[in-house]
Amino acid sequence: MQASSSIWSGRYVALLLATFAYFLTMGIMLPILPVHVKVALHGGGREMGLVIGAFGFSALLFRPLAGYLGDRFGRRPIAVGGAFIVAVSVFMYSQCTTVASLSVARFITGIGEAFVFVAVLSMISDIIAPQGRGRAFNFFTIALYAGMSVGPLAGEFLYQEYFTRYVWLFGAATAASAGAIFLLLGETNANCGGRPRIRLIHPAALRPGLILIASVFGLAGFNAFVPLYAKMLHLSGSALLFAVFACALIATRILGAGLPERLGNETMTKIALACSAGGLVLIGLSNSLPMVLAATLVFSVGQAFAFPVLTAIAVAKAGPSDRAAVLATFSAFLDAGFCFSPMILGLIADHVRLETIFFICAAVSVAGFIGIFRAAPASVVAH
């Protein structure tokens, strides 16, 4: 398929709609899972880390297979299959009565996530020419966070007005609707049918991925522990914080879409890591709703820029025959952060004050700023 220099087309808009529907499912679970594990399943920090981390672990484990299948058989089959795997596994949550069974269901969700995420990024890379990919990935992340902002509100409404089971049923339905949209799309990879080899680590994605993991570690900690931190601050729930984060991130990406071109990707990476670290420290120091909202805004600015820029950098070095493999490796660093940080932080959470978790996440962003960023050559972060 010929990539287009204009990003707007019917197919691209359909991809954005499917992205919104899929990440609506992901957002619905954010404020509910930690509370469900603690209240309904009587779990502590370790159990919460296991349930949340199981998702990231399986997504990380199955990324190489997703990349291989996408380059070998096409993007649409893995997008459709992944979305329906997620739908079935989220429905399974309603039948889980133990931490072990919920962890298994979350593991299956991660498999579907591996397929969907690689497929959508590859589809965008297939239909958009290189000069338009930065903007295309930017609007992809806007659709993503639109779903993640609406999802927590819907999840908490269903949780408070009905039962947890209805949260999972609604989440399964939105994932299935994303699968239906993928089903209607044609194949975007005209070069599928070869026999690419499975690469656990594609070298073109290594350095951008190492920079990315320093950023997402803090986001994983934010997602996992903000619901409990909101209760500690005597707030009615955490949906407002998640919604503010997502809306501020979307606004930053829209208003700041031209900043990487003007300031350079190197400068934007520094800004992203610095704002992430500063926002996390401020969250840990917050003792009221206005303070934690202001801290969340700072944190959202840091999270707004890293992923779109680094994704474009990674895929720029890939050809059509190994594009999914590069994106599989790159997105695996995303999974590594979401997998290992909840597990590590869950083990720590039972022994420290909750605000310390946010200071630890900030330290990881600082380490990324000092260590990983300096280790990357200029070619990694240059235009």
TrEMBL record:
Family annotation (Pfam families): MFS_1 (PF07690)
Regions that span the bilayer: 12-33, 48-66, 78-95, 107-129, 136-154, 166-185, 205-226, 232-255, 325-345, 357-376
InterPro entries tied to this protein: MFS, MFS_dom, MFS_Exporter, MFS_trans_sf
Keywords: Membrane, Transmembrane, Transmembrane helix
Major facilitator superfamily (MFS) profile domain ranges (all copies): 11-380
Domain of life of the native organism: Bacteria
Name this polypeptide is given: MFS transporter
Organism: Massilia antarctica
